[in-house]
Amino acid sequence: ADTAEIAAAQLPKEARDVLVRVRSGGPFRYDRDGVVFGNRERLLPAHPRGYYHEYTVPTPGAANRGARRIVCGGAKTAPDACYYTADHYQSFARIRE
Question: Among this protein's residues, is 5 annotated catalytic?
C-alpha cells in the first residue's frame, strides 16, 4: 500500500519544530525521543531493526506524550525519509519537504 503524504508546511507547528530538531540532533523534550522504532505494525517500508527512530510531537494540553509522533529512517540527522502519525502508529503519512 502506498503511504499517504503530507507536506511539511501542512504539519502542526509542533511537528515542524521536531523536524528541525531531528536535523540538528536535538535538543529533544522527552527521554524517549530518538529511540529505535521497531515498525512492528509494518506500516512503513521494511528495513533492518535500528533504521527507524521515533520522536514525540508535543500535543498542546495533553498531560502525557500524546499520540503524535514523527518516525525517521536512515541517518539520525540526515534521514532518508520521515513519517508523521497523529494516532500513535495506526496510520502514517510520509513528510514531503
Answer: no
